């Protein structure tokens, strides 16, 4: 990560890295307020924890919802893939590894992925919100001429909010 990006990410994390501020930011995006007694726990990945892949902010709300925030000044179509890598590491952080091998189903917080974008609009049109999907990156397997309709699918969607739309 170059120094300018590191600086922007650290400023974003510094501004919004406290539970109360995250509560307000999340509430503002959702148009709702979280009850004050609802615990908000920061679980952001740090530095070189995973091949220098870090996320900007991650937190759980009441142990029922895990939210990953990313702050971007350019639209990156690979954000869903990056977020997939982040969320796997976050779950490793909040779930006991021994529990993964237990016989019973482990309940995990439902994930939500949010990208806050504040760069120039390169698409030539104004937009407030758009969705990026992991499945857009999947190779076209139809050329294999086999039936893939029964294969399990994996989807991850991130909502991108454009903060520059007036």
Task: Describe it.
With 166 residues, this protein is an alpha/beta fold. It is built from four helices and six strands; from the N terminus they run ααβββααβββ. A six-stranded mixed beta sheet has the order 1-2-3-4-6-5, sandwiched between helices. The radius of gyration is 18 Å and the shape is globular.
Number of helices: 4
- Largest sheet, if any? 6 strands, mixed
Average residue-wise pLDDT: 83
Oligomer class: single chain
Radius of gyration: 18 Å
> How many individual domains?
1
- The helix content is 25-40%
Order of helices and strands: HHEEEHHEEE
Annotation keywords:
single chain, 166 residues, 6-stranded mixed β-sheet, alpha/beta
How are the elements arranged and paired?
Blueprint: H1 3-16, H2 19-30, E1 40-42, E2 57-61, E3 65-72, H3 79-94, H4 97-100, E4 110-117, E5 129-133, E6 157-162
Short description:
The protein has helices at 3-16, 19-30, 79-94, 97-100; strands spanning 40-42, 57-61, 65-72, 110-117, 129-133, 157-162. It has 166 residues and is of the alpha/beta class.
């Amino acid at each position: 990560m170059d120094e300018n990006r590191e600086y922007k990410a650290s400023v974003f994390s510094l501004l919004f890295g406290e539970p109360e501020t995250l509560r307000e930011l999340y509430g503002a995006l959702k148009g709702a307020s979280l009850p004050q007694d609802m615990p908000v726990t920061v679980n952001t990945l740090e530095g070189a924890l995973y091949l220098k892949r870090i996320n900007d902010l991650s937190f759980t709300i009441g142990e029922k919802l895990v939210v990953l925030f990313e702050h971007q000044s350019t639209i990156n179509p690979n954000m869903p893939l990056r977020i997939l890598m982040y969320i796997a590491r976050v779950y490793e952080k909040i779930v006991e590894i021994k529990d993964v091998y237990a016989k019973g189903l482990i309940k995990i917080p439902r994930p939500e992925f949010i990208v806050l974008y504040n760069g120039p609009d390169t698409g030539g049109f104004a937009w407030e919100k758009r969705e990026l999907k992991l499945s857009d990156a999947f190779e076209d397997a139809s050329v294999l001429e086999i039936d893939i309709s029964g294969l399990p699918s994996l989807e991850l969607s991130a909502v991108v909010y454009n903060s520059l739309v007036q």
